[in-house]
Please model this.
Amino acid sequence: DQQVKQNSPSLSVQEGRISILNCDYTNSMFDYFLWYKKYPAEGPTFLISISSIKDKNEDGRFTVFLNKSAKHLSLHIVPSQPGDSAVYFCATGEFGGYNKLIFGAGTRLAVHP
Amino acid sequence: NAGVMQNPRHLVRRRGQEARLRCSPMKGHSHVYWYRQLPEEGLKFMVYLQKENIIDESGMPKERFSAEFPKEGPSILRIQQVVRGDSAAYFCASSPRDATNEKLFFGSGTQLSVL
Model:
């Protein structure tokens, strides 16, 4: 019973291009969405978030888009850099609730020079 | 300003032994979460604790698993009589408050291997 799905296990992008990572969720009650980045042998680190009252949130090279009708969110990285190579997890939770997050399985991004 | 500290980084146990995983939250953080990551899967919530209180343990297996966060000292995740299926990466995270929009700070995890 996967409530959060990241259908692409891996993505390869050339340096300088755009990386687009996708995430689908099943429960329309989810109202807060986050992206975490994880390097090998490290814990996940928070990247960016968005609440359901918005459809876009931007932070530097990172932008998250939320399409509530499609129950879909995406993370755009522009321009991609080799240091962005990591596993990216989308996660969801209840805004204002505590951090009982539901994570997707992750997408491994490789950015090539 | 040290981050979330977990130890050990790697723990090897034989079936039937006990595993004790420790987590010291970031300074000033009183909310601790434990998540488990099985191979090729996302992190799954296990338990949420505040000092001396278990707030939500709905993700913990009913048997053999327990967690505590005492008034003094680190949070402990304890797994009794480990089985091979317990092999996973266990991540601890902390936050200063209990709201979802308070980002979590994760430790580097403990990789548990059960032989």
